[in-house]
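Q: What does the assembly look like in three dimensions?
Context provided by user:
Components: four
Sequences:
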Amino acid sequence: MNTEPFLNLDRLIHEKGRLAMMSLLAASTEVSFTELRDTLSMTDGNLTTHIRTLQEAGYVAVTKSFQNNRPLTTCTLTPKGRAAFSAYIDLLEQIVRQSKTP
Amino acid sequence: MNTEPFLNLDRLIHEKGRLAMMSLLAASTEVSFTELRDTLSMTDGNLTTHIRTLQEAGYVAVTKSFQNNRPLTTCTLTPKGRAAFSAYIDLLEQIVRQSKTP
DNA sequence: CCATTTCACTTTGATTGGCAAAGTAAATTC
DNA sequence: GAATTTACTTTGCCAATCAAAGTGAAATGG
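A: Here is the predicted structure of the complete assembly.
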């Protein structure tokens, strides 16, 4: 068995919540705080910290604005984040393929 | 996007180290402590706790014996562990497929 | 032989990380 | 104008990871 893919899994992405976030962001162009929270049924606090983690990694860009006199936080994947996610998915693919071929 | 696969990922398996362990165990019939440690380049302490975690979950069976007058700990997947791993891999497959089809 | 080292683990703090309860500020409702 | 709702952020707790140190038995070296 090849252990490389496991060792190379990006810790920042390899977490249920953040993996789901990255997948959502990769699928759509931009997603709001409330959309993320409701779609992934996360608590507000939990989501805030995950967003910050990904932001500090340079994986997502966060835009804060106002809409209908209410704060609106939207997230998008940065090119760096998209690349990291793509690489991560490739590793997952290897892991799946590996375990499916005995 | 379907968020179900993410939410259902088994926490006990979804950790780099333990995922690698489970994959190794799924591939071979039984693996020794030292093999696991060396193959996955883990520290001893780290490996012990991961083994215990999986054992307490009923995912791996641990056998302690002696060989050449030295302790020998070998791990195997239980049927429960095999089922859990299989389910986990199926979810990974869904996640990969999902992200590959825009 | 006795001391030291090696081997195969286990136990132990220490740091990190995830998570939700509580907090904040502005707008809305009653 | 008091209470509630919305959209977050901050704080604190608890669990989990990780490696350094510890253990006990065997092998090695002087």
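Follow-up: The helical segments of chain B are 4-8, 16-27, 33-39, 44-56, 79-100.
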